[in-house]
TrEMBL record:
Belongs to the ketopantoate reductase family. SUPFAM superfamilies: 6-phosphogluconate dehydrogenase C-terminal domain-like, NAD(P)-binding Rossmann-fold domains. InterPro entries: 6-PGluconate_DH-like_C_sf (IPR008927), 6PGD_dom2 (IPR013328), Ketopantoate_reductase (IPR050838), KPA_reductase (IPR013752), KPR_N (IPR013332), NAD(P)-bd_dom_sf (IPR036291). It comes from the Bacteria. Residues 188-309 form the Ketopantoate reductase C-terminal domain. Keywords: NADP, Oxidoreductase. Residues 3-157 form the Ketopantoate reductase N-terminal domain. The lineage of its organism: Bacteria, Bacillati, Actinomycetota, Actinomycetes, Kitasatosporales. This is 2-dehydropantoate 2-reductase N-terminal domain-containing protein. It comes from Streptomyces bangladeshensis.
Amino acid sequence: MRYLIIGAGAVGGTVGGRLAQAGREVVLVARGRHLTALREHGLRLRVPEGESTHRLPAVDGPGPLGELRADDVLMLAVKTQDTVAALETWADVPVAGGGTAARRLPLVCLQNGVESARLALRRFRHVYGVCVWLPSTFVEPGVVSAAGTPLTGVLHLGRVPHGTDDTARRIAADLADARFEAPVVPDVARWQYAKLLGNLGNALEAVSGPVASEEAQALYARVRAEGEAVLDAAGIPYTGAAEQRAARGDKVTLVPLDGTPRGGGSSWQSLARGTGTIEADHLNGEIVLLGRLHGVPTPLNELLQHLANRFAREHRAPGSLPVAELVRLADEAVRQGG
């Protein structure tokens, strides 16, 4: 199989680089300065065992590839807010032997949240979800890092909305050769919703810095409790902490990488890079949406969604709102009922 990494940033670049190291055929899809760096210097992947450079085909879309191959796998690794544009770009690309990508090829959503897979099912017949547990960083154009060892990440994989098949197992086998653990599960959404609860802290980290102090951790606990209440009210199952610990254990331990300070998570990185957008609408916003549908107040998640979007629009520095001020705003939002 040939893997087309649509969005070769932190997660996509790491997965693409590791697959290339394992001898799999990989094409990177990127844009702007990142694409230029990939074409001129290759993908530089920094991991605990050292830095490697991978001279891989790098394109800005399907045009340079022409007709796609029947054994292509589309791995969607853009942020959720960029999903619709990516789906529109790739859905109608012809595939050798007849048909289009949307009708014939597997689309694997390597993304946070749960919305992208739903969007993909509107256009693509064969959609696979992944619960992405992969600490990685976009360092600079052409350079990504992943500090996990002995495995780079754990990627639960399954069909959307549910089930497994031989395609999922073949993809998982390739990922396993590339230093990932990739359990094929019939209920991938259950893992993704559990990850969503953890990602509710992304906006908190983005606007106020690491969730390390007692004050920040207490606020995150309140934000997560809102999320759990919403999922319970909606009847949406999610894996518990014990099951997640059993699945992950100490398989991914972070180690310092020379010259590559570990920043924050994906939302923090979006602010640090000044992209102008952030994924809060599909993380905290997912909880807000479900809360409104099921009559559960979610003032804290609504506040974080609003602040994260404001920070992105105004190109504000990540972590620039003091935690004490955020807590004050949170208490006020609760008093006002959101």
